[in-house]
TrEMBL record:
Residues 36-475 form the Major facilitator superfamily (MFS) profile domain. Pfam families: Sugar_tr. It is a multi-pass membrane protein. This is MFS sugar transporter-like protein. One of its GO terms (molecular function) is carbohydrate:proton symporter activity. Its main location: membrane. It is found in: Membrane. Belongs to the major facilitator superfamily. Sugar transporter (TC 2.A.1.1) family. One of its GO terms (cellular component) is membrane. Gene3D superfamilies: MFS general substrate transporter like domains (1.20.1250.20). InterPro entries: MFS_dom, MFS_sugar_transport-like, MFS_Sugar_Transporters, MFS_trans_sf, Sugar/inositol_transpt.
Length: 518
């Protein structure tokens, strides 16, 4: 029949989503798009640089003993570190109105400008208050860019490359940390405030590049459709996914799927914060945004990122040269792992990476705790060296699942109509958890020493159990079709979607919504 022929044609177009003929670098449209995607890919550079920087400057005598900071520790050190995350909490409230009203690109431009202003304050700081104000602005700008960047990557990337592209966005966290660590390593010999001012200046580099480069980047086709600019959306898809051919089967499939799904979502009035409380599927999404925001900060990485200086002191590594060198080289190892692991979500899935990463983090952090305690009690050099080795390894196992796969999962489970709001909730929780974490960690380390690590040993085990229980696999679906996994037959997916049709013919979809209801 005619309808069956249409279905077969649609399914043929759908099958081509993951089977682009030839390597992408031979395709002019994809080659241009993948080059431009590097602009939003830099979104996690600022928080990575910041985490490394605040740890690195603690290793500098000029920062510790200078008249600006007066050797901060305990509560004051916690405030200096946590001010970035307080900025994150404030910045979250700008994400949805900026990205939904003005578009993904303008939201990123605004965040980049604010981050540049924060860098200027930090670099010129004459006291702790000015430094904290700069970090507050950095947090506001950083969370806006960090939240919107992966969303824009996911909404622009070619379907078969979306998983890898979105996963790569979080690798820039390690790149920012590497640059901060090596600049600090080069500047620590300066006997002036420039020893910490020079590393502060370079925090503005990615924000400057993004503020300028964003104007060369296309806008999200999904945002354009939501604003009634269907032809502009089709032009973007055709130019970058079909080499200018508006009738390309893949382009037409994507366009019809986006058009139908967003129309259904708008018709169903799924565009308010209240919609988050409507239906078991959205309640599950709330839980995932909150839980992943907590896991992002409370998996021991806050100690390793912000207070590596203290961890190294606990195992007898005390010289500035040794500490800055370990910091720099460990960040290089972390970056190599994050880039290598970014190609895994599209091949082995999201769920296995999240679970294996968390299990290995628990093992490694337990070993760090035991070895640090052994060194503290005996002064054993082998225990010291082994502790440092496992600190390196921790970054690797953390990046296995909780760098690329985690961010990809967060973006995928949110339908377009609440994607910006869901990402805002995720970053709000991340900011609150980060602010609490970075404030409490130095107090806990100061009071309990290495025994404070046992909290994370227990907590990582709890995180593993919850992820095992609550997180299904999402690999192999488009951004629109993930709703079928979450909401089942109640998903707002276009009836023109061949995947929805096929699933519908097979009977009710076994979904998270049904699981929550039970």
């Amino acid at each position: 029949s005619k309808s069956s022929k249409v279905d077969r044609a649609a399914l043929a177009g759908a099958s081509r989503l993951n089977n682009k003929v030839g390597p992408w670098w031979n395709d002019r449209g994809l080659r241009t798009l993948n080059f431009l995607i590097f602009i939003p890919l830099m979104s996690e550079y600022v928080p990575g640089y910041d985490a490394s920087l605040i740890n690195n400057v603690q290793q500098l005598p000029e920062w510790q003993n200078g008249k600006q900071f007066h050797h901060p520790k305990g509560s004051l050190l916690g405030f200096l570190s946590a001010s970035y995350w307080v900025g994150n909490v404030i910045g979250v409230f700008f994400i949805t109105p900026l990205s939904d009203r003005f578009g993904r690109r303008m939201a990123m431009f605004f965040g980049s400008v604010v981050a540049i202003a924060g860098t200027a304050l930090c670099t010129g700081a004459i006291n702790s208050g000015m430094f904290m104000a700069g970090r507050l602005l950095l947090g506001i700008g950083g969370v806006i860019v960090g939240a919107i960047g992966p969303v824009l990557v996911a909404e622009l990337a070619y379907p078969s490359q979306r998983a890898t592209a979105t996963a790569l966005s979080n690798t820039q966290y390690s790149m920012g940390a590497i640059v901060a660590a090596w600049i600090t390593f080069g500047a620590f010999r300066l006997h002036s405030t420039w020893a910490w001012r020079i590393p502060s200046i370079f925090q503005a580099l990615p924000s400057l590049l993004q503020a300028l480069g964003i104007f060369f980047l296309p806008e999200s086709p999904r945002w354009l459709v939501s604003k009634g600019r269907e032809q502009a959306a089709l032009d973007v898809l055709a130019r970058y996914h079909g080499n200018g051919d508006r009738e390309d089967p893949v382009v037409q499939f994507e366009f019809q799927e986006i058009l139908g799904t967003i129309e259904l979502e708008i018709a169903a009035k799924q565009t308010t914060w209240k919609s988050f409380l409507t239906g078991p599927g959205n309640k599950w999404r709330i839980f995932i945004m909150i839980w992943f925001g907590i896991c992002k900060q409370w998996s021991g990485n806050g100690v390793v990122s912000y207070y590596l200086h203290t961890m190294l002191l606990d195992v007898g590594i005390k010289t500035t040269f040794e500490q800055t060198l370990i910091t720099a080289t460990s960040q290089m190892f972390s970056f190599a792992c994050s880039v290598g692991f970014a190609f895994l979500p599209g091949r082995v899935g999201r769920r296995p990476l999240l679970l294996w990463s968390m299990f290995l983090m628990w093992v490694v952090f337990l070993l760090i705790t035991v070895l640090t305690g052994h060194f503290t009690n005996t002064g054993s050099n082998p225990a010291s060296y082994a502790s440092v080795a496992f600190i390196y390894l921790y970054s690797g196992v953390h990046n296995l699942g909780w760098t690329g796969a985690m961010m990809l999962y967060v973006v995928e489970v949110l339908p377009y109509s609440i994607r910006a709001k869901g990402i805002s909730l995720f970053w709000l929780v991340t900011g609150l958890a980060g602010a609490f974490n970075t404030y409490v960690n130095p107090i806990g380390l100061d009071r309990f020493g290495y025994k404070f690590y046992y909290f994370y040993v227990v907590w990582i085990a709890v995180e593993f159990a919850v992820v095992w229980w609550q997180c299904p696999e999402t690999m192999g679906t488009s951004l629109e079709d993930v709703a079928l996994i979450v909401d089942g037959d109640k998903a707002a997916v276009s009836s023109a979607d061949p995947v929805a049709k096929v699933l519908g013919k097979k009977g009710p979809v076994a979904s998270i919504a049904e699981h929550v209801e039970k």
